[in-house]
Amino acid sequence: MTDFYNSMLETLQAMSLVEVIGVITGIAGVWLAARQSIWTWPVSVVSVTAYVFVFYEARLYADMGLNAFFIITSFYGWYEWMYGGKGHTERKVTQVQQREFWVMVMLAVAFTGSLGYFLDNYTNADLSYTDSATTAVSLMAYWMQAKKRLESWLVWLAVDVVYIGVFTYKELYLTALLYVIFLILATMGYFDWKRDMEKEAAAPVTK
Questions:
Q1: What is the distance between the alpha carbons of residues 133 and 92, in angstroms, rounded to a whole number?
Q2: Residue 50 domain boundaries
Q3: Could you report the per-residue pLDDT of 39-56, keeping only the tens digit for each?
C-alpha cells in the first residue's frame, strides 16, 4: 500500500502546470456547457490550448491536432450559440436529424482510417488508430454541441469511456480522472438539455 501511495505522489509531482490548467478549465467548460452558459466557449479555448502541449508531450498527435482545431471551432460555437437561432437569436436545443447523423458517422469512419494509416506508417505516434478514432468522434460531438444537438452528450459519453482507458495507459492520470468527471457532467448535460428542449416545445407559441 505504501508503494502505491508513493507512486501516486510521484505521478502528481510529475504533472505539469499546463495539464493542471487544462483539467481545471476543462471541468469548468463542460459544466458551463451543461448549463448552456455562453462562457463555456472562452473557458474551453483555454483548456484545449493547454492540451495541445500536453498531447504533444504524450505523442498523441491526433489529439494534439484535434485540440488545435478546437481552438478555432470554439469561436464558431460561441457565435452559433449567440446568433445561430431563428432571426439570429440565441440557438435552442434540438435533436439531430437522421441523415445528418449518418453523414457524420461516415465522415468519422473515413477520417479514422486515413489519419490512423498516416500516423501508423509515417510518424512515431502511439495508439494511432485509437487516437484517430477518438479524434474523429470528438470532432463529431464538438460540431453537434456547437449546433446544440441534444445527442452530442451521448456521443461525448461514448468517447469519454475510451479516453479514460487511453489516458490511463499513457499515465496521464489527472487527465483520465478529468474524463471520469466528464462522464458525470455529460450525463447531467444530457438531462438538463433534454428538460430544456421539452420545456421549449411545450411553451405556447406567441405571435
A1: 29
A2: 2-201
A3: 999 999 999 999 898 888
